[in-house]
Amino acid sequence: MYVSQQKQQQQMQSYEAESIAHHCEEQGDMREAYKVGAALAKENLSEQEQKLINEMTDDTVIVVPGTYDHIHHVLENLNIKFKTVTQQDLLTYPLREEQTVYVNCASSFPPAVAHHLRKFVENGGQLITTDWALANVLQIAFPEKVRHNGNMTGDEVVGIQVADPNNHLVKGFLPAAKLAEPLWWLESSSYPIEIVDKQNVRVLIRSKELGQKYKSDAVLITFDCGKGNVIHMISHFYLQRTETREQRHQMSAEQYAMDVNASEGVKKLSKEAKNLSYAKVQSTATSSAFIYNHLAERLTKYKS
Question: Rounded to the nearest 5°, which phi and psi values hold at 76?
Answer without folding.
Answer: -65, -40
